[in-house]
Amino acid sequence: MEKAVFYHAGCGVCTDAEERFVEALDPNRFAVESVHLGETPERVGEARAVGVESVPALVIDGAVYHINHGADLSALG
């Protein structure tokens, strides 16, 4: 099973991206973790370390997919 992490800030753009993209991932293929960086600011460094520059972003097996633009990571911590 592939690991996917959805980093977001809870904004409207992020919520829409989660509904359109993350929820569409096959649960038999992907183990998805949703990380709200506004609620868990201690994980901003983790997101930055894997290459996330803005949210919403989906990371699948180390590949970062930036979806639209809700907020720069620098604004979150």
UniProtKB/TrEMBL annotation:
Q: Which InterPro entries match?
A: Thioredoxin-like_fold (IPR012336), Thioredoxin-like_sf (IPR036249)
At the top level, the lineage of the source is Bacteria
CDD domains with a match to the protein in the record: TRX_superfamily
Q: What residues form the membrane-spanning segments?
A: none
Can you give the residue ranges of the Thioredoxin-like fold domain?
A: 2-66
The name this protein carries in UniProt is Thioredoxin
Its source organism is Aurantiacibacter xanthus
